[in-house]
Amino acid sequence: MAPTRRLKRVVASQPGFLHLNSTVDAATLVSSRRKRINKNKKKNWTKYSDINDVEDFLEDVRHQERTTGGLISEKPDDSLFFLDVGQPRTAESTVPEPGEGKKRKGKTSRPLRIDLILQRDSLVPPPIDVLAYQQPNAKKLRRKAQRAEQLAAKGVVTRRQKQLLNRRPVDRAAKKSLTEANNNPGRDFYDIWGQESKPVGDLWYLQQTGKRLVKRPERLNEQPSVLPAVEVIAPGGSYNPDFFSHQALLQEAHDVEVKKQKAEEKIERQLAFDKDDTATEETVFKEQVEGLVEEDDDAEAAEAANEQDHVAVGAITLSEKKTERQRKKEKAEKLKDQRRLAERQQTGQQQQLYQLRSIKSSIRQQEEKTKARRNERKAKQEAQKSQPRRLGRLKFQAPDLEIKLSDELAGSLRQLKVLNKLNFLVPSDLFPVRKCNHFTL
C-alpha cells in the first residue's frame, strides 16, 4: 500500500495532472513543498532568488529617465499637464510680413530624416567624468597657494625665496661643452628636424667606452637594382584587353619566336658538313687498302734513316782553343757595342727634348682612352642595374611571354587560368633559374 500511495502523491504533484476541482490555479498544481537550499553559498543567492521585480523596477526607471528626463513622481504637475485652449487667432498673424518672400504652398519645412537620426533621442544627460577634473593633493596645493598669497600681501619673503635669491649664478658657458639632458629647461634652442646632428659627447670618450656608433657605408644607400619587386604584365595580357594592345603583345611574342628560330638555323648551318667532303666509292676503297701496299717503302725509309744517324755521329769534332789575340779582339768588339748602345740612348734622350709636343699629345690620347674606358665601364655598371643579377652558376633566362590568342580570351575572371607567379619574382634577384643537366653516354 505504501508504494502505491507514494506513486499517487508523485503523480498528483506533476504540473500536467488535472484535479477534480477545475477552479484551482495552475500555479497551485505544483507541489508546495519547500526546497531545501544552502544559503550560505554565494552562488545560490542569485540562482534561487527571484529578482524579476527589481529588474522591472530598474527598467521602468530607465524608461522614465530616457523619455521624460527623470522620474515622473518627482516631476511637478505643471510639467506633466497643460490646458489646451487652441491656437490664438490674431489679426497680426493673418497679415504676411513684407520682408518675407512668397512662400511655397503645402506642408511646412521639416528637418531631414538624416538629421533626426543624428540627434540625441534620450533625455538622460551625459555622465560627467569627475576623474578628469581631479588632481592629486588638490586641497594641499590649494592651501599652499592661499598661504603664499597671504604672505605676499603682507610682504613676507619665505625661506625658499631667500635661498633662490642668494644662489650664485651658474656659468652657462662652461656647461655647453657637456651633453645636456633632454628634460633640461635651460638648454639651448635647436631644431629637431634639422639636418645637422648635435654632438653627443667627446669622440675619444666614446671610442674608449665602446659607445661610438659605426658609420653607415655609402654603398648601403645605393639601390643595387632598379627593377621593380613585381613586374606588371603588358596591357595586352589582361583578361579583357584592348584590341591594339593585344595585337602589340602578339607581335612581340612573334618577334621573340622568329629570333629563336633564326638562332637555331644559324647553329645548324655552322654544324653542317661540306658536300664536297662526302665519302665516295674511291675514298672508301683507299681507306680499306691503306697500310697493305706501302710496307716495302716503309722498310727502305727506316734503313736510310739509320744510315744517316751513323754518319751524323761520326761527324762530331772538338772545338779548338781560342788564342789571346782572339780574346782581345772579342773584348774590344764587346766594348765597342756597349759604347755604341750608350751613345744611341743619349742621342734618343736628346731627341726627346724636341718631341715634347708629340709626347704630350700621346699622353693626352692615352688619358682620353682611359677616361672613355672608365665611362664605358660606368655605363655598363648602370646598365647591369636594370638586368637581373647572377646569383648562381646558371645565367638568368627570361621566361616565355604568357599570351592568349584571340579565340582564347576569357570574358570574365572566373574563366582565367592560373599563371606561374614565381616567374614574376625571378628578375628581382630572388633566386636563379634552375636547369637540369642531362648526360648521355
Description:
The chain is built from 15 helices and no strands. It is elongated. 46% of the residues lie in helices and 0% in strands. The longest helix has 30 residues, at 324-353. With 441 residues, it is mainly α. The chain has a domain at 237-270 and 402-441. Mean pLDDT is 77; it is low at 16-24 and 422-426. Belongs to the NOP53 family. May play a role in ribosome biogenesis.
Shape call: elongated
The total count of strands amounts to: 0
Spans with pLDDT under 50 lasting ≥5 residues?
A: 16-24, 422-426
User: Which class of secondary structure composition applies to the elements?
Assistant: mainly alpha
Number of helices: 15
Tell me about the largest β-sheet: none
Oligomeric form of this entry? single chain
Please write the string of helix (H) and strand (E) elements. HHHHHHHHHHHHHHH
Strand content: under 5%
Binned, the helix content reads 40-55%
Q: How many angstroms separate the termini?
A: 106 Å
Q: Over all CA atoms, what is the radius of gyration?
A: 57 Å
Mean pLDDT: 77
